[in-house]
Design goal:
Blueprint lengths: L18 E3 L11 E5 L10 H12 L4 E7 L8 H22 L3 E5 L2 H8 L3 E7 L4 H13 L3 E5 L7 H4 L7 H15 L30 H6 L17 H14 L20 H5 L5 H10 L4 H24 L11 H9 L7 E2 L2 H5 L6 H13 L4 H14 L3 H15 L6 H10 L21 H7 L3 H19 L12 H13 L5 E2 L3
Parallel strand pairs: 2-3, 2-5, 3-4, 5-6
Antiparallel strand pairs: 1-6, 7-8
Helix pairs in contact: 3-4, 6-11, 10-11, 11-17, 14-19, 15-16, 15-17, 16-17, 16-20
Length: 513
């Protein structure tokens, strides 16, 4: 088992490369506790940050205080995302107390501001790692404000991002060997460290931020000032127990065929773990160890690990090293050049945002693919590519297509606002891909056709009927898709929708070539 000696502690499964001091400040010997800020890794098991925090508390003979900062102003998040997150938080709060004798306090407020207050009485702070811009800014601001040392432990990736590569990688083929050559070092179980001082720390008296009561998730959700335009889904419930149930069901019934039937929409052969990974409710290390130990075909295992370890960590590499991950500036030069050369090409169909968002195009397959995401919070993996390619083809310009795809993905996908989502949208425009035969609108960017998906999927007609029924039931319950319900609308939704009305032509207007 690998151990780290960082901070003077040894924890099996926590490799030194996962551990970093964010500010190189001293431990405050007179502090009352070690503060563990749980934010990205929201689970009791396979949590490198949690175990390191407990080990540090034990080494300093201090109790461990644990907190989570919940802001209801997270960019592009809505009721769907908050409901799933709160379900997971309620479960981990209960599990920490019941299984590890650790009290988790959830405070309402900007996370770094809440933690900064609580750090005033701490010996040091331990937190997990986030890869998106806002997550990084939270940790940077905390490190600057805190009077004590702030440890950051990377727990939501197999190979630490800067260990895998010191630069933005061009494609999966350029990062695959780098990850595979060292993965065995990091694919280890994580020791559960027993907390020695189990005193409960009163954090409420040390911050002005209100504490959230998660004994009633519905009431907690109702008390947040969030975008209510997208309702929660019944198909997925947040929390580690549900994540483990999905994992076990996938291993038992789907893993052996993964890579063969996973692209057929009615085969239900996906793992459905992406949202749980996004919210930190299950570890990729835990998943891969379980998959490797399973009695399943080698092909199925290899195909799944390729997606979870190589493709997912390529996406994290992209967002970590490319500050423009949510802009067309992230594209390779060849993609920028060819798209610019075809900027003025005529489109056969042009839709405004309202028609796209409500799934009312001339293409019944695209409509069904889009509505699956709207209704269930999840889109079939292969279909996501077709969905994005058609938006590129059906909007007035590339810039609008890129913005609208990010808006729709982040609004409706349960795992929206994730490195995988940003990378998937960028791929539509040529990121992590190569040049293909040149054609109108797309230039040399890869093209996908309706005829292609009709040939590929035998169950497509049944899939369309299935989604049409789900969408009809959804509309009966919630009303028209895209309509804003009670509560504030997300900033991106407001901005993008207003620009759409002026940038787009009337819906489904056929253009002459």
């Amino acid at each position: 088992m690998s151990k780290t000696q960082a901070g003077g502690v040894s924890v099996e499964g926590v490799q030194a490369e996962r551990v970093r001091s964010l500010n190189e400040k001293d431990c405050v010997a007179g502090g009352h506790y070690v503060l563990y800020w749980m934010q990205a890794s929201v689970r009791c098991d396979f949590n490198h940050a949690l175990e390191f925090a407990i080990a540090r508390a034990n080494a300093l003979n201090k109790p461990l205080a644990c907190c989570f900062g919940l802001t209801d102003g997270y960019p592009e998040a809505n009721e769907r995302h908050y409901a799933f997150m709160l379900q997971g938080l309620a479960e981990v709060q209960s599990d920490l107390l019941r299984l590890r004798h650790i009290n988790l306090d959830v405070f309402k407020g900007s996370p770094e501001a809440v933690v900064s207050e609580l750090s005033n009485d701490a010996c040091e702070v331990v937190t997990d790692m986030g890869y998106m811009r806002i997550q990084r800014s939270w940790r940077t601001r905390l490190a600057e404000r805190a009077l004590c040392n702030v440890w950051q432990i990377e727990s939501d990736i197999v190979v630490p991002v800067e260990t895998a590569s010191d630069k933005e990688e061009f494609a999966a083929r350029t990062i695959r060997g780098k990850i595979q050559s060292v993965a065995s070092k990091y694919l280890k179980p994580v020791e559960c460290v027993e907390l020695e001082d189990m005193s409960i720390v009163d954090l409420q008296s040390r911050t002005a931020a209100p504490k959230l009561d998660l004994s009633d998730v519905d009431a907690a959700l109702a008390g947040l000032d969030v975008d209510r335009s997208v309702p929660r889904v019944s198909s997925f419930i947040g929390g580690r127990s549900e994540a483990q149930r999905c994992l076990q069901q996938f291993i038992d019934t789907k893993l052996s065929k993964y890579g063969e039937g996973r692209d057929e929409p009615m085969d239900n052969s996906q793992s459905y773990l992406s949202a749980y990974l996004h919210f930190g409710q299950i570890s990729p290390v835990e998943i891969i160890l379980a998959v490797r130990a399973a009695k399943a075909s080698k092909t199925g295992k290899d195909n799944f690990i390729e997606q979870l370890m190589i493709r997912r960590e390529l996406a994290i590499n992209f967002c970590w090293y490319c500050p423009q991950y949510d802009s067309l500036e992230c594209l390779h030069d060849w993609a920028k050049t060819t798209l610019a050369a075809h900027r003025d090409d005529k489109r056969d169909y042009v839709y405004d945002l309202a028609r796209l968002e409500s799934g009312q195009t001339h293409d019944p397959y695209w409509n069904a693919i889009h509505l699956e995401m709207v209704v269930t919070g999840k889109m079939h993996g292969y279909f996501r590519m077709y969905w994005g390619k058609k938006v590129l083809e059906w909007t007035t310009d590339v810039d609008t297509a890129f913005k609208w795809l990010l808006y729709l993905n982040n609004k409706y996908e349960l795992d929206g606002r994730d490195a995988n989502g940003y990378t998937g949208v960028a791929w539509i425009f040529g990121k992590h891909d190569r040049a293909h035969a040149e054609r109108a609108v797309y230039g040399k960017v890869r093209y996908m056709s309706q005829d292609g998906i009709k040939r590929k999927f035998k169950t497509l007609p049944a899939y369309v009927k299935h989604i049409e029924k789900l969408a009809a039931d959804y509309k009966k319950t919630y009303g028209p898709i895209g309509a804003v319900k009670s509560g504030k609308a997300g900033p991106s939704a407001t901005t993008t929708a207003s620009s759409a009305s002026s940038a787009s032509e009337p819906p489904a207007k056929k253009k002459r070539k």
